[in-house]
Amino acid sequence: MDWVKWHQLYETEPSRIVRLKLVDQHLSNCMHDIPAGTFKAVSICAGDGRDIIGALSGHSRRNDARVRLVEIDQNLVEAGREAAGSAGLAEQVEFLLGDATMTSAYSGMAPADLVVACGVFGNVREQQLSQLVSHLPQLCQAGAYVVWTHYLSRTGMRRIELIRGFLRAAGFIERQMDFSDQAGHLVATHHYEGRGLPLVDNSRMFEFKDPRKLDILRYRILRKLDKKLRLGFFSKERRYGKDNPKIFH
């Protein structure tokens, strides 16, 4: 699969544009709430990093950030480095070409203040969701934020509820959740209220499952979403957060 072309669809497909905008809003809110001073962020399976690079570009905290984006596709890493340089973020943003599923990729940056796990949970087998969540406290210091996404569908909603339960059990509190019919995705922010755990070297957090067959199905779903979006089919998004806490359980 040509992952560079796949990521370039965020520039043309309405559903992906909406999703990226929501992720940027979540990341911006987190960076605003992180205490003053230098902060660290890590991105798992970062792609070309357009989410966090976009959020940082015009943010007042851009000079405070020290970011590591871990990605195994060399073409995406090269594209991301070029984008970071063009945004004037070459000093703040580091791309690591490596296996994002291994804890060793985050050595020297964990525990971080912000963990980006967008496009990750939907590509992890259901049996490994708890394993991934159980590793997050190794990446987070106390008070850190985790921003994550998951596709919406009947199966997706069941998996989302499982992930929410695993996060609660691991000490993560929901701060904001956007169920966007337009994007076909959930975008969520969780706040870590537990204590940071030592990073266990060379431990596998999850396996990134082969996305080829799944991407064919998702592509067809997204094409339908894009058509409906152009026709104005969807109502406004469902936004849940600190100002509407009653939905949390």
Can you walk me through this structure?
The chain is α/β, with parallel strands linked by helices and 249 residues long. It has a single domain (3-239), classed as Vaccinia Virus protein VP39 (Rossmann fold, 3-Layer(aba) Sandwich). The chain contains 7 helices and 8 strands. The protein has helices at residues 3-8, 14-33, 50-57, 74-86, 129-139, 154-169, 212-230; strands at residues 39-43, 65-71, 93-97, 112-117, 140-151, 172-180, 185-192, 238-241. It has an 8-stranded mixed β-sheet, with helices on both faces. Helix 5 (129-139) crosses helix 6 (154-169). Residues 211-216, 233-237 and 242-249 have low confidence and may be disordered.
What are the salient characteristics of this protein?
alpha/beta; 37% helix; 249 residues; Rossmann fold; single chain; globular; 8 strands; 7 helices
